[in-house]
Design goal:
This protein is elongated. The termini are far apart. The chain has two domains: 138 residues, Jelly Rolls (Sandwich), CATH 2.60.120; 78 residues, Arc Repressor Mutant, subunit A (Orthogonal Bundle). Helix content is 44%, strand content 23%. Strands 1, 2, 3, 4, 5 and 6 form a six-stranded antiparallel beta sheet that branches. Strands 7-8 form a two-stranded antiparallel sheet. The chain is an alpha+beta fold and 232 residues long. The chain has nine helices and eight strands.
């Protein structure tokens, strides 16, 4: 399979997301309508406040999805990895993008025009249901995030974020997270200053909860991290 011209039929990304409900003819329609491109770290897929004309399916790589505050500070609210879809809510609602999507690990991403999504919604009820379920799941995650920001301390939120990264991306056999983030990016997930995250990571290391090697973070005691994250 050509990296920049992947086939949808049998694609691991497609089989893991809402497109898995499509029949052969619908999959063929999707494949003929999409276009794929390779992106490097730091490239922007779409920006908050712009109008996007389709959604994006991640074949490989990692994106961070964030909102920008009044002073330009990022608040990372989600990640997208292989098999994930992003931008679809703005397409369905016909509104400007409410977030920015930025590449943080070299990625191959397929662009799907809005009309294709609308056609599939009309043709395939299982696809429509999967789309609604995905929207509800993301809304629930957003509600949980708002609750955590309001009720948990920065220490508790950092422990929760480390476990979330483990669940989302997995760890190497030695417990090192498979995703590499800057301290600023970590702070932008937790919702605090970079200095606070640096200090707390040092505390976690002293408590033997984690190991640190450059930007790499090794989870040494997930049970205690989980206890800290659920303190409230």
């Amino acid at each position: 399979m050509d990296e920049l011209n992947p086939t949808c039929l049998g694609c691991k990304s497609t089989s893991n997301n809402l497109f898995r409900s499509l029949n052969e003819a619908e999959t063929d329609y999707l494949e003929k309508s999409k276009s794929c491109n390779k992106y490097k770290r730091g490239e922007i897929l779409y920006r908050e406040g712009t109008r996007i004309t389709g959604c994006y399916c991640v074949m490989s790589g990692i994106l961070k999805i964030y909102k920008t505050g009044g002073i330009g500070k990022e608040q990372i609210i989600a990640f997208a990895k292989s098999g994930d879809i992003t931008g679809y809510r703005s397409v369905i609602s016909n509104e400007q993008a409410c977030t920015t999507a930025e590449i943080i690990e070299e990625a191959v991403i397929c662009y799907i025009p809005a009309q294709v999504i609308f056609d599939l919604v009309k043709r395939n009820s299982d696809f429509s249901l999967s789309l609604m379920q995905l929207s509800c799941k993301e809304l629930n995650q957003a509600n949980s995030y708002i609750k955590d920001i309001a009720q948990k301390t920065v220490r508790e939120r950092l422990a929760e974020v480390l476990l979330m990264l483990d669940k989302t991306f997995g760890t190497e056999p030695d417990g090192t997270l498979k995703v590499t983030l800057t301290r600023e990016e970590l702070a932008n997930i937790v919702g605090t200053a970079t200095e606070s995250v640096i200090r707390l990571l040092s505390d976690f290391k002293s408590e033997k909860l984690i190991g640190l090697t450059g930007k790499k973070i090794q989870l040494l005691n997930k049970a205690l991290l989980n206890k800290i994250s659920n303190f409230n």
